[in-house]
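[audit] Reproducing an earlier prediction to check determinism. Same input, same settings, fresh worker. If the tokens differ from the archived copy the diff job will pick it up downstream; this log only records the rerun itself.
[audit] input (138 residues):
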Amino acid sequence: MTDERIKKWLISANNDFMAAGNLLFVTAEKIITNVICYLSQQSSEKFLKAFLLSKSESFSKTHNLELLIEKCKKADIEFPQLDAGRLTSYNIAMRYPDEFRIPSIQEARESYETAKLVRGVILSRLNISEKEITLFNN
């Protein structure tokens, strides 16, 4: 695996990812789309920051996924092009009432799929299996 600090970032990212995925499987009238979008953003941010840590790269306190992706590409010339879509906007918009809105179910699904793509790229680049970052292997 990798050092403990990076592993904690990866586990936290994966927990957010799994929670977002679990929320997609409730009935349509109970789905909480803003939380799915927020957790998808958080998961992606943490996966990208874990990758930067693995490359001994520093990062500022930012939620800007595009900026983090650019830093990843500078740290690893083989890092693939990623499109974070709307995920960056969900960090603030889904947490605070002044910016709050209810995303559609389709938007929540797209957010989760984007997070899934980010997760897959990071795990692949770090050569880490899902099992290594899953807390409970049933």
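[audit] rerun output stored. Observation attached for the diff report: The two ends are 20 Å apart (CA to CA).
[audit] end
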